[in-house]
Amino acid sequence: MSMPVAVALGLAVSSGLGTTAATASHHIRNGQIATDYGAEAIYLQTTDPVTGATSDIGAPDRTRGCNLAASQDGKTLAYSTVCGYFAGRGGDTVSVMNRDGTGQRVVWQMPSDFGSRQSVVGNPAISPDGKRILFGTARTTGPSQTSYWTINTDGTGLAPLDLGVSTAPDGVPRFSPDGRTLAFTVGGVIWLKKGNKPAAPLTVRKPGLPNNPYGWLRWSPDGRHLVFADGKGLYEVAAHGSAWRALAASPSSTTGYFEPAYSPDGTQIAFISITPSGDRGGDLLRSIAGLNLARPGTPRTILPGNPAYEVADPVWLPAQ
């Protein structure tokens, strides 16, 4: 699963999630929200953004996976098949499949001697033309070190990615919709790498850009904005750096907002809201929430949280 990595990899007891068939509706403009869910065993599902009804990807069988990402047209999903306690044991993969769970295949599998006990980290990114996948690996033991790679979707052409920064990004860089620019964060600063030019920090004219976006950047479908979260709130910044705005602030010090993703038409954002469950064990409730960008402020709950499982990595897929 994704950011923060400690939460993503530190998973607990397996628990199934009861699902219902997603309700079809002609007025749904923005398809479905794909996520992963579970505890020690992680599965993939879709959620109807209007009704909140869920359905397992690949049903009636459940597809195991985490670190979910999608192609620009929403027809292909990229993910890792080794999650939770099993990560970092040499079996981590970058895999792809069709949106309905068919056509599953491994694009790259980490060799047991790869690096120094490394694990696939962050959501992989599929290039807009669908030909390459960008992903990261990080050590699970010893000094922290993250490396980034690209690979063709047929499994050939594995190559390291040089971003031209001395400190590794906080998360996997994201392709702009036109494929010409990569966006990533380093220490809470947003950087842009355009083509073969050196990466440069995004300079905003409105001061006080919130720090610590946790590496979770997402481009708007038109490429004009980037959305991110700092744990306490959601923010949108213009890709040319002119201004930023706060979209929503968490209602309390114990609630965190993470992992925002634009709807296909760019009018809404889905994200993960994390709150304590109140149980003695200190379990967290991870719900899927939504926000209308035309009326920033109070989000709505799309899928309530459950302390028996975690939900993460929202990807908003276009309607089929």
Please explain how this structure is put together.
This protein is mostly beta strands. Helices cover 2% and strands 42% of the residues. The protein is built from one helix and 24 strands. The strands form six sheets. It has a four-stranded antiparallel β-sheet, with no helix packed on it. Strand 2 and strand 3 form a beta hairpin. The chain starts with a helix and ends with a strand. 41% of the residues are buried.
Compact overview of the structure:
The protein is mainly β. The chain has one helix at residues 5-9, and strands spanning 32-38, 42-47, 54-56, 66-70, 76-80, 93-98, 105-109, 118-126, 132-139, 146-152, 159-160, 174-175, 181-186, 189-194, 200-201, 218-219, 225-229, 233-238, 244-249, 256-262, 268-276, 284-292, 300-303, 310-317.
